[in-house]
Design a protein that fits this description.
The chain is mostly helical and about 180 residues long. It contains 7 helices and no strands.
């Protein structure tokens, strides 16, 4: 019997919402000239706060959804998200995951590395993408937006985690199996 982790369900819903925001044509793309990609910040959160299985599930689910709505070959975004997530996951013990500045830097690096790995994979597959000087603006703006979104996602998911998990019961110094003997003075 398969047991679902209740805390991973909001992550899957967020991955679905992130792909919808990236694919929405009248959003940031028409205003800034670039699309916001919330999957790398979501992968940063999964790599730092959850298990390997959740990280793999989010990268597969989000990557396939993203590739099904884009011109990328199926699995390309999954591979680039998984590479970014694995690098962060392996080094998560040395990362100050509760610090906002560290979240900004890691979100920036993941949001920059994911499209670069995708571009590299496209060139290796023999499908050179259309790149130019506008691509530099798109990479930098996507990385900056991803960096700003990472601490917001961390705060949102920590609030959700507090709402869905039980609060720890405080330990008492009184033991239930102890008997207090009283004498009259």
């Amino acid at each position: 019997m398969m047991r679902w982790n209740l805390n991973s369900m909001p992550l899957y819903a967020a991955a679905y919402l992130a792909v919808f925001v990236a694919a929405y044509p009248n959003g940031f793309r028409s205003t800034l000239g670039t699309q916001i990609d919330l999957l790398p910040p979501l992968v940063v959160y999964c790599a730092l706060q959850s298990k390997w299985t959740t990280l793999a599930g989010i990268t597969i689910f989000g990557g396939y959804l993203f590739d099904s709505l884009s011109a990328n070959p199926l699995g390309l975004t999954t591979a680039s998200l998984f590479v970014s997530g694995c690098v962060i996951r392996v080094n998560r013990e040395t990362i100050l995951r509760d610090q906002t500045f560290a979240q900004l830097v890691i979100g920036f690096m993941a949001s920059l590395a994911t499209p670069l790995v995708s571009l590299l994979l496209l060139w290796l597959l023999g499908r050179p993408p259309l790149t130019g000087f506008g691509s530099i603006w798109q990479l930098v703006s996507t990385a900056l937006l991803g960096a700003l979104a990472t601490p917001v996602l961390f705060g949102t998911f920590e609030r959700i985690k507090r709402k869905l998990n039980f609060r720890p019961v405080p330990e008492s110094s009184f033991r239930a199996d102890r008997e207090i003997k009283r004498r009259r003075a």
